[in-house]
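Our platform keeps sequence and structure together, in a single record for each protein. Such a record has a labelled line for the sequence and another for the backbone structure tokens. The tokens are whole numbers drawn from a learned vocabulary of local backbone shapes. The remainder of this section carries one protein's record, kept here as part of the documentation:
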Amino acid sequence: MENRLDRIKKQLHAQKYKLTPQREATVRVLLENEADHLSAEDVYLLVKEKAPEIGLATVYRTLELLTELKVVDKINFGDGVSRYDLRREGAEHFHHHLVCIECGAVDEIQEDLLEDVEKIVEERWRFKIKDHRLTFHGICHRCQDKKASEQKQA
């Protein structure tokens, strides 16, 4: 985690920003909860445990800055809540998500599934793609397994 924190610090410095203690606390929370898709409020509550003096507005500003610098991606799964997801190091594109409409679980697909689609869009519509997002909404394997298990028992 310290290596990743150091690389993020260098990313900020390259854009003329400092990794202030408040920003560092926010980044640490994101690193410690990398598997989760935390809302700003979730991040704030976790930061508050480490550094009670940090306010919600500071966390919001930090998350917006990290989004602008492409350290994190701001995502919305259709529930009206913005969530923050650390961008995989070296990733050219945002990763894809599978959102379960039954339990709300969010799984990630790290591989880029849209390379061919991008080429078609760029050639046919002369549109230079900088990034893309793909979210599938459906029923996760856990809910499917649970339902199948319940049907067997009935």
Remarks:
- The chain has a mean pLDDT of 90.
- The longest strand covers residues 72-76.
- The radius of gyration is 18 Å.
